[in-house]
Amino acid sequence: MSSIDLNALIIIFFVALGTYSLRVSGLLLSSKFVKEEGDLKLFLDYLPSTLLLALVVPSILKEGMIGLVAAFLIFLCMYKTKSILLSLLIGVVTIALYRNFFL
Amino acid sequence: MKNEFLDGFVANMPIGISVFTYGSVLGVLSTQKGVELFELVLMNIFIFAGSSQFVLVQMWDNTLDIIAMITAALLINLRYFLVGASLNPLFKQSSKKEKFKYMHFATDESWAITMQRLKSQDITPKFLFGGGVCIFLTWFVGTVLGYNLGEFINDPKIYGLDFAFVAIFFALALSMYKGKQDITPWIITALVAVVSSLYIDGNFYIVIAAIVGSYSAVILHKRKSL
């Protein structure tokens, strides 16, 4: 087994263990740990969106001008339809058209 | 009491279609990144959390950055702590054993549909379980099909498929918009991500930007309420 495969198994194991622990501990600790209001709750509320943005913004810029165009179209689509699937399609098609006809 | 497992399963079928589609995209991307099929299957069974699987596959490279990948995936999944906490009313009559058994099947989709149903109907955790199994199957079949079809696509860049990650995550992030108070933390996150990705090797900039961005939201909120 190569070291990449071993690393992959280590990663999968710990993410699986951690994710299951989060699911169960959230239920078991319930409202004891996270209060209705508070810094921790607010921080956690923002984490999914900030994490996703941190992930995509450098990738959008790396794509160049067309990346910004695609991002803007996704923004418009989400604003108008709130459909993630349609936004996905628009983003991918925009990039594909550009690469096939303008590069 | 009717068969609540079946009720939950059926109630999740419409959303299962989009889960199937996302799954097939992940399958296609997995082949491009050199993820083995058994690794994808292990993730499906034991992690079973879509967006974190996307993050793991995207960070998949010739060398796997163990700490950064585990941290990024678990940070994405931190919300499951709150999902679990919010399910307390559903499990109020349940034993610990039942809690341990069913919670693995709480996904964004099955959770959302369960919470919606809980408002109007007195359901048990079996509803959540049935919904979770529906999502599990559609996700599993979608990823494996995508994985096998993906092998026939020679140059995925022509189809813009590498951009699918970016498009999905960006759309998902936008779907989380709750109001004007989000704009400044989101801009801070974007700026920190762009700057730190230039200076930091690997994928750790994701974690740094997310923590700074979320923390900025806490500080901004405090300043406003003072």
Automatic annotation (TrEMBL), chain A:
Transmembrane region(s): 7-31, 51-77, 84-102
Entries under InterPro entries matching the protein: Brnchd-chn_aa_trnsp_AzlD
Keywords: Membrane, Transmembrane, Transmembrane helix
One Pfam family this sequence matches: AzlD
Protein name in UniProt: AzlD domain-containing protein
Automatic annotation (TrEMBL), chain B:
Primary residence: membrane
Annotated compartments: Cell membrane
Keywords, alphabetical: Cell membrane, Membrane, Transmembrane, Transmembrane helix, Transport
Keyword ATP-binding: no
Transmembrane segments: 12-29, 41-60, 66-91, 127-146, 158-176, 183-199, 205-221
Topology with respect to the bilayer: Multi-pass membrane protein
Pfam family, any one: AzlC
InterPro entries: Brnchd-chn_aa_trnsp_permease
Highest taxon in the source lineage: Bacteria
Similarity-based family: Belongs to the AzlC family.
Protein name in the entry: AzlC family ABC transporter permease
Organism in which the protein naturally occurs: Arcobacter roscoffensis
